[in-house]
Design goal:
Helix content: 25-40%
Largest sheet: 8 strands, mixed
Distance between the termini: 27 Å
Number of helices: 10
Oligomer: single chain
CATH class of the largest domain: Alpha Beta
Bound molecules: flavin-adenine dinucleotide
Number of domains: 2
Radius of gyration: 20 Å
């Protein structure tokens, strides 16, 4: 075995909410867990960015809670000061369920979960192969990780590409379940304003038609110390224009947002989320993809399984951890 190979019990690909929640649960066991993520930070689609003095949540905007286990988890985050309730109704509308935000930004929740975990950032898994009873994962830094079990939490089309890189065969029914999963994309514009917007409290606007799906006022939300907004293109608009020149498409979204801002945009950046939210999900909380195959233990998790939102990602990560716990007993 070459010396640039690290050994671990469980390798998790992805330090988004699914991977971090799984690792956090598994860290209570006597097994070694290693996480790799290609990103510079943790959190995946719970993403933030700074432009000068402005800060932005440019991925997930808030969390909602349905499952009592996730309600308890969010209570812990509230107590730890990394989350708070943002709002539970729009002006003039009846109260609905609470929307919780990260403090100061959504990524605070991921950073909190990541404390004490063994995470290798800016490390992309390029391919996965079998090495006797274990997995051998090749990384883009020239190193490899040999693991007894593998948990993959990337968006499912990326997971399928990774598995195809080694010509690994799942059962036909699992392969079909994965191929059914589908995501919408989202063009996110992060724009600095010359003065506070005139968006009403709580600083959010949701649209059900037109090019824009959502506008957040990051100053009102408490994310930014200077006026700034995040504009999310709708699924249809983002899909149609995903391949277009980004600055041009951002300008179209800024123009469409202008009537709601009451301020001028002085600078902006744009990010394209190819896999933003799953629109077709799998009914199981996670997939034991090695089931009925000769493969070493392989589990897939993420928001494509337990529900297309932050809560689903966490619950899916926990379900994967429960399966891995039972397989290491
Ligand atoms: C624009 C936008 C708005 C959203 N709004 C909301 C909202 O308001 N409320 C809500 O609840 N949800 C929202 N969501 C959805 C929410 O963000 C996701 O459901 C959740 O964050 C998914 O977590 P995950 O761990 O399943 O996946 P991810 O967060 O995507 O994590 C996967 C991780 O895997 C890493 N990775 C992928 N491939 C590799 C590889 N080969 N090697 C190493 N690392 C790899 C990625 O870098 C990433 O960090 C939104 C998402 C987007 C994009």
């Amino acid at each position: 075995m070459p010396t640039n190979t690290q050994h671990t019990d469980i390798l998790i690909i992805g330090a988004g909410l699914a991977g971090l929640s799984a690792a956090s649960k598994l860290s209570k066991l006597d097994v070694e867990v290693t996480i790799v993520d290609k990103g510079r930070g943790v959190g995946g689609r719970l993403a933030g960015r700074r432009i000068g003095d402005a800060s932005f949540d440019h991925g997930a905007q808030f969390m909602t809670t349905r499952d009592p286990r996730f309600v308890a988890q969010v209570q812990q985050w509230l107590s730890a000061g990394v989350a708070e309730e943002w709002y539970s109704s729009f002006p003039g509308q009846p109260n609905s369920h609470a929307r919780y935000r990260g403090v100061p930004t959504m990524t605070a929740i991921a950073k909190h979960l990541a404390e004490g975990l063994n995470i290798q950032k800016e490390t992309k898994a390029l391919s996965v192969a079998i090495d006797r009873d274990n997995w051998l994962v090749e990384l883009d830094n020239g190193r490899r990780i040999n693991a007894k079990a593998l948990l993959i939490t990337s968006p499912v089309p990326q997971t399928l590409d990774l598995l195809a890189s080694s010509d690994l065969k799942l059962t036909a029914s699992n392969q079909a379940r994965l191929e059914r999963i589908n995501y919408e994309s989202c063009i996110a514009v992060m724009a600095i304003l010359d003065q506070p917007s005139f968006i009403d409290p709580p600083g959010a606007l949701a649209f059900d038609k037109g090019p824009i799906a959502w506008i957040s006022d990051n100053l009102q939300k408490g994310v930014s110390v200077i006026p700034s907004v995040t504009i999310h293109g709708s699924g249809d608009f983002s899909h149609k224009h995903f391949g277009d020149k980004r600055d041009k498409i951002a300008q179209q979204l800024i123009n469409a947002a202008k009537p709601y801002l009451g301020a001028n945009v002085v600078d902006f950046e744009v990010h394209g989320w190819r896999y933003s939210k799953p629109v077709v999900v799998d009914p199981s909380p996670c997939m034991v993809a090695s089931e009925a195959t000769e493969l070493p233990t392989l589990v897939l998790a993420g928001d494509a399984f337990a529900g297309p939102r932050v809560e689903g990602a966490v619950i899916s990560g926990w379900a994967a951890a429960d399966f891995l716990t039972s397989s290491f007993r």
